[in-house]
Amino acid sequence: MTAATIAPTRLRLGLAALAVSAFSAFGTPAYARGPDGIADVAEKVIDAVVNISTSQTVEAKGGGSNSMPQLPPGSPFEEFFDDFFKNRRGPGGGSKGGDNGPPKKTNSLGSGFIIDTSGVVVTNNHVIADADEINVILNDGTKIKAELVGVDKKTDLAVLKFKPTKPLVAVKFGDSDKLRLGDWVVAIGNPFSLGGTVTAGIVSAKNRDISSGPYDSYIQTDASINRGNSGGPLFNLDGDVIGVNTLIISPSGGSIGIGFAVPSKTVVAVVDQLRQFGELRRGWLGVRIQSVTDEIAESLNIKPARGALVAGVDDKGPAKPAGIEPGDVVVKFDGKDVKDPKDLSRVVADTAVGKEVDVVIIRKGKEETKKVTLGRLQDPDKVQAAVKTDEPAPEKLVTQKALGLDLAALSKDLRARYKIKESVKGVVVTNVDANSDAAEKRLSAGDVIVEVAQEAVSSGAEIQKRVDQLKKDGKKSVLLLVSNADGELRFVALSVQ
């Protein structure tokens, strides 16, 4: 007998009475039904949701009779044909003896929605990326060629424009900031080429950062979203768009109830700029930032740990003339609290170029306010690969041991050995104890310690003297400002115990 079967009858009767009481008080149990408004929402907005069809000319591989037919990603037959032709071709999937055929057109399908009855459509950038031709397919099957207005790769959004042949239905954006966990949402799109599919679920999480981009702040939902839903709208029960369905997490490729949508607050700002300029014009502060760990917070006398730590300031950026320096911690920007570096990145990017804003920083334990006129963020910086050269013969070094590091004064030979720029000043690390806190924090030979406890240093002896003083003062850690060979700075907190 199990524990359930031998439970006292009185207890079972009591639970039954409780269940009946709950049923009588509230009617149908909440888990047995969803909200009443889903059908009304679907009926109201369905004609504003469109399918996005794209075609792209690609070089054919392994032509001939054994070639796999071109199917739109997410087609129900894609997996079947993929397995079938791989088995016929053998390992690698190549055709038997066939040369590459002529270029072929491949098709893909996604989703989008109309935001203006003049024919303006919002979708994901990845739905239309590299397409030679884009078509919008209305809910009644009408297919119309569309033109690209603009894209933003960082938020994966795109705006299209087409000439309507009849009156259109458009939807408006709602306020994603008003969403609460557990609110019901409705997704409509084109999963697996099944246009006009309506699914419903709840908001599972807000402001979700999944490290897919610099401005991640997704709405997470368990509404069923699959391949082909990309670019489609996520509605609240008022029929307002509160997100753009963008990606899912799934080991199998199908929905497991973890989907992500770009919140409407982000979408509105991006779409407005794409319609106005055809590109994004984001604000730029001109600083490199990092997280404020508990150790760093303790070293800087910041309680609790919060904000974005300025690790470097661009000489040509807006922060420099405003007086912002490495070691400052930004805790508020333009009246908005900054809890971590992601917060600062998002709020700066969303702020108009040329606007003068107040930036509240903590410097040496005290708050200060700086006025900054934002610049414009340019396209990603070009990464220059370091040119390898033969290392000079090792020199005899005079080193000082401290914090698990071998330290030496910068010399011409050491600059050449580690390719350290002339602009970098400080004490160079020549070796790191593998069992030290420094190794765990990823310090390595060639790094240069610029400051200790926010004071410049030029020798290993100075560093040891500062560490000894911090120990006497009862500090648990020491804050180092560390530069790499190219002059890029970061803060590292090391234990002094």
Automatic annotation (TrEMBL):
Record-given protein name: Probable periplasmic serine endoprotease DegP-like
Gene3D superfamilies (alphabetical): 2.30.42.10, 2.40.10.120
Similarity remark: Belongs to the peptidase S1C family.
Signal sequence, renumbered to the chain: 1-32
UniProt EC number: 3.4.21.107
Pfam families in alphabetical order: PDZ (PF00595), PDZ_2 (PF13180), Trypsin_2 (PF13365)
Domain PDZ span(s) in chain numbering: 274-365, 386-485
Catalysed reactions, as listed in the record: Acts on substrates that are at least partially unfolded. The cleavage site P1 residue is normally between a pair of hydrophobic residues, such as Val-|-Val
UniProt keyword terms in alphabetical order: Hydrolase, Periplasm, Protease, Repeat, Serine protease, Signal, Stress response
Entry superkingdom: Bacteria
